[in-house]
């Protein structure tokens, strides 16, 4: 028998069937917070774990046993993410799969034969996917996009730029011959940029800006993306790629597992901008000691840091110096997980290639996140959620849906909107309108490319990455030993959303998931406030979790309902483990 912190399944019942033992797959109305508004619960609770659901697809991609899906229940309701695509299903599925992976690992570590129940609330999921917009510091809304990060008309279509970070902004403007005078000159720079781009072709802008290290992509239709060689590379890649690097035994975990199962797990977080930080934030929720590392010259923005680094510690290390390298090696010597969120190969010069990390720390689990994947002509390109949406056709699909919604509203007519069916005025009954029509109304006539209602590729990929890391830890202890590498990309998640995630009520339908006007969604049941080193911090409570529902039920394993620590200052912690 192995040591208590290097688990095999608990006796002969520690199989998937044993873990799933007990009554599962129930609906559960009690999952709704007691003060949740009734209007946010448009339908009965529904089981979300069918093998052909989005959750089933995600769980299969993770290599999970389908028998465990029987322990999943879902409180179906209003996911405030109105879209022509099944964004609500993607959101709920990724959070559910992550919760199930967390419950599974907690069982394996505790050597328990009974998997805790997993309950997912659609309202909590929606709030979590909007968390980067709902966060507040001393009541101030976050700045999520810089003025030069947006869609621009070109001579033959549109481009999408990303210039949030100063170095990306400077490269974009310099490439197009525009002097960067800083944020105070945004209005003048935007006018010059608009005039310059209007004279150029989208593909030429994309190639030129990329060559100079900036970020711009041509907005493509789904058909144009289908013909692109990068799409071909993405389409044949697995949603979640997992490789076994060696046969090393799993690294021991010290102390009791704690309520989330990850107490004693040490995670080095070298990620940025939502997706990677969401994954590591989830591990921190479950009890891991997560240390985020940023370069001193490029610290994360406070608004982004406030939401995505809950539960973590933050430090600054210059890995190009001997001092920084020595500090990193000391951290690596007792780490269990390393997560990176940069282009494939971009960190290899710092000794952060997965194989190199595993050689120096056998038994390590490495997570790699990229924008475009690890194969194809764009594998070395920088990218963000908004750029992937633009390149893959998502932005065009959203624009077309909005235009259709506008036409729907126009067909109904303003008179019908104010008339009362059946009255002697002769006003005809109002025609049924889709949630998109309710959301966008007469403002949808413009076919300007549109983004999804949340950074859904980022959030969804982040939860899948956390789930993949948890499953790798489980497989090390209950399956086959060895260091692990898990890889995900935003582009592959976009492909999943576009072609594989099932719609709730038929292709393209949002009827079963969307609440209509976004203003009807009240996130307050899932918000909390506290004092922090950043100021008075408001943030969204976690949507990931497992365990019995109800304050009076103290039996069985459960995950924490909140992070054990709030966000501190960027780079405010020492480069040491707790």
UniProtKB/TrEMBL annotation:
Residues 10-20 have a biased composition (Low complexity). GO terms for molecular function: transferase activity. It comes from the Bacteria. The keyword Chaperone does not apply. SUPFAM superfamilies: CoA-transferase family III (CaiB/BaiF) (SSF89796). Residues 1-59, 412-435, 550-578 are annotated as: Disordered. Keywords: Transferase. InterPro entries: CoA-transferase_III, CoA-Trfase_fam_III, CoA-Trfase_III_dom3_sf, CoA-Trfase_III_dom_1_sf. The keyword Flavoprotein does not apply. This is CoA transferase. It comes from Streptomyces iconiensis.
């Amino acid at each position: 028998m192995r040591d208590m912190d290097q688990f095999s399944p608990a006796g002969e019942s520690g199989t998937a069937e044993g873990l799933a033992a007990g009554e599962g797959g129930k609906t559960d109305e009690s999952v709704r917070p007691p003060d949740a508004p009734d209007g946010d619960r448009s339908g009965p609770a529904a089981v979300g774990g069918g093998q052909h659901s989005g959750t089933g697809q995600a769980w299969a991609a993770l290599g999970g046993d389908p028998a465990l899906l029987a322990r999943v229940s879902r409180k179906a309701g209003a996911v405030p993410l109105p879209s022509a695509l099944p964004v609500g299903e993607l959101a709920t599925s990724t959070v559910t799969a992550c919760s199930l992976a967390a419950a599974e690992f907690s069982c394996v570590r505790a050597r328990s034969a009974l998997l805790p129940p997993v309950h997912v609330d659609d309202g909590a999921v929606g709030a979590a996917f909007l968390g980067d917009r709902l966060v507040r510091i001393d009541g101030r809304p976050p700045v999520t996009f810089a003025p030069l990060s947006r869609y621009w008309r070109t001579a033959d279509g549109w481009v999408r730029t990303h210039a949030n970070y100063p170095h990306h902004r400077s490269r974009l403007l310099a490439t197009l011959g525009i002097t960067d005078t800083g944020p105070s000159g945004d209005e003048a720079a935007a006018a010059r940029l608009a005039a310059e781009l209007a004279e150029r072709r989208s593909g030429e802008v994309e190639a030129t800006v990329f060559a100079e290290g900036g970020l711009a992509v041509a907005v493509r239709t789904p058909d144009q993306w289908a013909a692109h060689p990068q799409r071909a590379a993405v389409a044949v890649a697995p949603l979640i790629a997992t490789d076994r690097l060696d046969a090393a035994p799993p690294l021991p975990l010290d102390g009791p597992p704690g309520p989330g199962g990850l107490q004693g797990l040490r995670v080095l977080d070298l990620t940025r901008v939502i997706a990677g930080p969401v994954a590591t934030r989830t591990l921190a929720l479950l009890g891991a000691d997560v240390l985020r590392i940023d370069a001193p010259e490029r610290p994360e923005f406070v608004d982004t840091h406030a939401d995505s680094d809950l539960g973590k510690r933050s430090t600054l290390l210059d890995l190009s110096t001997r001092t920084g390298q020595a500090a990193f090696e000391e951290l690596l010597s007792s780490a269990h997980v390393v997560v990176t969120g940069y282009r494939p190969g971009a960190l290899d010069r710092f000794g952060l290639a997965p194989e190199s990390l595993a050689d120096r720390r056998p038994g390590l689990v490495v997570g790699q996140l990229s924008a475009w994947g690890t194969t194809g002509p764009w594998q070395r390109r920088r990218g963000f959620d908004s750029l992937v949406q633009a390149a893959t056709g998502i932005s065009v699909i959203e624009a077309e849906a909005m235009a259709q919604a506008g036409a729907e509203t126009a067909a109904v007519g303003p008179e019908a909107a104010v008339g009362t069916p059946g009255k002697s005025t002769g006003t005809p009954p109002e025609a049924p309108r889709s949630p998109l029509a309710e959301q966008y109304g007469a403002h949808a006539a413009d076919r300007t490319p549109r983004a999804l209602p949340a950074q859904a590729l980022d959030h969804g990929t982040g939860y899948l990455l956390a789930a993949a890391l948890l499953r790798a830890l489980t497989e090390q202890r209950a399956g086959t030993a060895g260091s692990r590498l898990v890889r995900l990309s935003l582009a592959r998640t976009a492909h999943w959303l576009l072609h594989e995630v099932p719609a709730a009520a038929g292709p393209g339908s949002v009827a079963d998931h969307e609440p209509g006007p976004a203003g009807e969604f009240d996130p307050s049941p899932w918000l909390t406030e506290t004092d922090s080193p950043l100021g008075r911090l408001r943030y969204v409570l976690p949507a990931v979790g497992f365990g019995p529902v109800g304050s009076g039920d103290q039996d069985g394993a459960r995950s924490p309902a909140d992070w054990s620590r709030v966000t501190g200052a960027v780079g405010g912690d020492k480069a040491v483990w707790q």
